[in-house]
Amino acid sequence: MAKNANSTGTFRKLPSGNWQVQAMDGYREDGKKKYVYFTAPTKSEARQLLAAYQSKKNAPEEETTGCEPPQAVLLGDVADTWYEDYSTQVRASTYNTYSYTLKILKRYLGDKPIDGILPMDVNHFLDELSAVPYSRSCITKCRAMLIQVLDFAEMNQMIPSNPARKAKTMRIFSESAEKKDAFTEDEVHLLLEHLPDDLLGNSIRLLLGTGMRVQELLALQPGDFAEDLSSVRIERAVQMVNGKPVLGPPKSRRSRRVIPIPEDYRAYASYLLCHGGKAFIWSSSRDNLLCTFRRHFYKALEAVPGVRKLSPHSLIQRSCRLRACPLRWWPGSWDTRISRPRSTTPTHKFPLWPPLWPY
Questions:
Q1: pTM of this prediction?
Q2: How far apart are CA 2 and CA 21, in angstroms?
Q3: Using CA atoms, how far apart are residues 303 and 185, in angstroms rounded to an integer?
Q4: What is the reported pLDDT for 79?
């Protein structure tokens, strides 16, 4: 952002390539500063729009007839500015996924003036997304992003209040989340028995027994396993940034953990150590290691009759359901974390490892 020395406004180049100028234009009735915004393809044109507005404001009333009104600030430009400023608040992989939601938002509301959006426009926008239909998750993300963009506009005094916060709450947002699917007990037995005895098959078996994420599996190094293979330490995960795998921290601070490996599953960990890479257990000559693993994962499921083609995340669901059932407790299946009341984890508290009472 650049500001001229003669106080003719603050200029910013938007991600869309346009230039936006911001200038103070007196005070509001509540005593707060009032700002005007002008957007143009070039910096010079934006400066001319501001100069024309100031000339019109300062000229006598009889000479102002025929002057063009100031160009309205569009929601698409404000959304680009918000997206640019938001890059330092989230992880690179998360920031990259927001670009898809931003495209949807700009497709439907990008050409609307920011100060002309009403709660009924927000309602109509959400209804249109439901009619396409977009998924519940996508609509939720679009609604949340719109609220954040309009909060940004309100904070910068472009609008007096956020109309998205006054819009109706759609029925899909008030309903409880659907229970995520997981492999059944019979499917788990089929997978353990019929998956190939190779790096992929034993990796899937280990995921079933530990509940670690695929991104964490792909970032494992031989030194992450305990010497007796009783546990595995999670310190890093593979993240996708602009379609390329990047090694980074796990999903959250609580994701740095030590996962006990059940005794019946330690043979699979031993196979990974013997047949995996020296630097990392999993490696690939392709750029997109995560997509490569998922593609082979689905092919492996298709080769096992009687098993549904679920996502790799269903392996976590199955592991959590086994841990949530006291009658299905297996040796060594103590978690080092205190679980949170989320749909992806059991609702009761896991004891710390090692147990604080004698056997």
A1: 0.55
A2: 10
A3: 18
A4: 93
Q: What is the DSSP letter of 262?
A: P
DSSP-assigned letters across all residues of 11-35: EEE-TTS-EEEEEEEEE-TTS-EEE
CA distance 106 to 104: 6
Between β-strands 2-3 and 10-13, what pairing exists: parallel, antiparallel or unpaired?
antiparallel
286: helix, strand or coil: coil
Instruction: Please return the burial class of 338, using the count of CB atoms within 10 Å of its CB with bins 0-12, 13-18 and 19+.
Output: exposed
Distance from C-alpha of 137 to C-alpha of 144, rounded to nearest angstrom:
11
**Cis preceding-peptide flag for 354 (omega within 30 of 0):** yes
pLDDT confidence band for 228 (50 / 70 / 90): very high
pLDDT, tens only, 16-26: 788 888 888 88
Which sign does the torsion angle of CA 75, 81, 84, 90 carry? negative
- Predicted confidence at residue 244, as pLDDT, reads 74
- Cβ atoms 9, 22 nearer than 8 A: yes
The sign of the dihedral angle between the CA atoms of 334, 340, 341, 343 is negative
Highest mean pLDDT among 3-17, 21-35, 117-131, 235-249: 117-131
**How far apart are the C-alpha atoms of 262 and 337, rounded to whole Å?**
16
The mean pLDDT of 305-323, rounded to a whole number, is: 75
pLDDT at site 24: 86
With vertex at residue 340, the alpha carbon angle to CA 337 and CA 342, rounded to the nearest 5 degrees, is 135
